[in-house]
Recover the amino acids of this structure.
């Protein structure tokens, strides 16, 4: 063990750990749950430290030696050499201050190691005076959040969703000539193609992609330089511009200053916007999973118009049973994302005056939502969607029995007479053709000319 000091006095820290007193106090005081701060936040927080150090050096506020040490330490963190030294949970103070100090302390102690100074000596880098120069948790934490979320969405989520959309496009094309029963209110309706049905699934994903991409642009605005409440207290007048420009240079993206720094600290509108887009996507994903589950139901005693891949046994007691497990996984993820969005909205609504102090749960939930949708989109595509096959025999059987084919008769004999044919067929277990003939409304030849599913696909078929 080694003894660390802070404004509250001394505290013991394990001698091989690179965190300091603030982190240790948080570890001791908050033994709640197991959910750690996502490492993506640690990495982007470290990038913020690097940008700040470069800005302060350019403004002649930080020596070249200290700037170089901070840059070198951050590069080591980004190389994942110190992942084990960021142990804090999200159930800390909601502003993220303990995590912020964790980053400051680790950078300080990496500098100690590089200069052969004892860990905890705060030489040559002091965690507050040097590593944290011109910074507050209140501006750096939301900045780190924006950078982390931006790249998770851009590099992980969007490609996964685009692949999923392509999967539905491929199936829509594959099934374009398969005519089947359409359904409204879960009841039989007029015909459509299986390709048309799957084209709707693609359109759901496409619309969500547009919403997510719109939300993503909001993350390019960062409040770095706002410090405590948005006034930029304790910063040089040139600091904000330089620091933000360094973030843009470091990432290769067009990060810029928030339009209003006071608003950016007191709320997390970009986080809420993205979460809402993911919630709306999840509503669509749930609907898609539900439809595919019902279309594949059976195999013999339900709809059974499509066949899902048999990936694993579905029952511990019923032999040969195969369940729509991938659809169920998709629905579980969708529900979790919807729940996460509710939590994010509540947390964002709870800010008081110049600061929102419930950011930790917002970022944890949003990153979880992003990762869950990214992962489930891939697994659903690979282990379900690509392997879906049409059950042509069942599709034809259902189509032939469909009483709503009588809709085609409306133009010839009118709605009321067509309804009589339907009721006759349904009540006496006849085909529509036989019912029309028995009611002396139409001969078989005329019926066949009018009631042809291929001619009922409408102008968009």
């Amino acid at each position: 063990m080694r003894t660390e000091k802070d404004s509250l006095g001394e505290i013991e820290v394990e001698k091989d750990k690179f965190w300091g007193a603030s982190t240790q106090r948080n570890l001791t005081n908050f033994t709640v749950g197991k959910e750690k701060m996502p490492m993506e936040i640690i990495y982007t927080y470290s990038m913020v430290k690097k940008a700040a150090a470069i800005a302060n050096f350019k403004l002649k506020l930080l020596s070249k030696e200290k700037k170089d040490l901070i840059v070198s330490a951050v590069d080591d963190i980004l190389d994942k050499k110190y992942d084990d030294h960021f142990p804090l949970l999200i159930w800390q103070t909601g502003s993220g201050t303990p995590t912020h100090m964790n980053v400051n302390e680790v950078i300080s102690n990496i500098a100690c190691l590089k200069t052969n100074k004892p860990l905890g000596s705060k030489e040559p880098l002091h965690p507050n005076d040097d590593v944290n120069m011109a910074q507050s948790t209140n501006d750096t934490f939301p900045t780190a959040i924006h950078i982390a979320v931006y790249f998770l969405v851009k590099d992980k989520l969007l490609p996964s969703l685009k692949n999923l959309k392509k999967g539905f496009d491929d199936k829509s094309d594959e099934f374009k000539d398969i005519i089947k029963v359409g359904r409204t209110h879960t009841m039989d309706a007029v015909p459509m193609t299986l390709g048309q049905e799957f084209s709707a699934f693609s359109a759901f994903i496409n619309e969500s992609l547009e919403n997510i991409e719109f939300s993503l642009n909001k993350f390019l605005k960062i409040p770095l330089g706002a410090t405590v409440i948005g006034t930029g207290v304790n910063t040089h007048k040139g600091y904000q511009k330089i620091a933000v420009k360094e973030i843009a240079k470091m990432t290769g993206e067009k990060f810029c200053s928030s339009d209003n720094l006071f608003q950016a600290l007191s709320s997390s509108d970009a986080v809420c916007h993205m979460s809402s887009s993911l919630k709306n996507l999840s509503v669509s994903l749930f609907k898609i999973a539900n439809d595919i589950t019902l279309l594949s139901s059976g195999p013999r005693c339900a709809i059974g118009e499509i066949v899902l891949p048999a990936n694993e046994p579905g029952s511990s007691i019923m032999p040969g049973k195969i369940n729509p497990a991938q659809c169920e996984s998709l629905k579980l993820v969708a529900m979790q994302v919807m729940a996460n969005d509710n939590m994010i909205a509540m947390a964002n609504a709870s800010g008081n005056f110049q600061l929102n102090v419930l950011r930790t749960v917002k970022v944890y939930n949003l990153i979880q939502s992003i990762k869950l949708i990214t992962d489930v989109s891939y697994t659903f595509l690979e282990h379900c969607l690509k392997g879906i096959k049409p059950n042509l025999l069942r599709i034809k059987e259902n189509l032939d029995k469909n009483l709503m084919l009588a809709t085609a008769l409306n133009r010839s004999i009118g709605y009321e007479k067509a309804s009589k044919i339907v009721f006759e067929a349904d009540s006496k277990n006849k085909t529509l053709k036989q019912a029309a003939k028995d009611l002396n409304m139409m001969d078989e030849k005329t019926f066949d000319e009018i009631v042809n599913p291929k001619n009922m696909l409408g102008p968009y078929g």
Notes: The chain is about 55% helix and 5% strand.
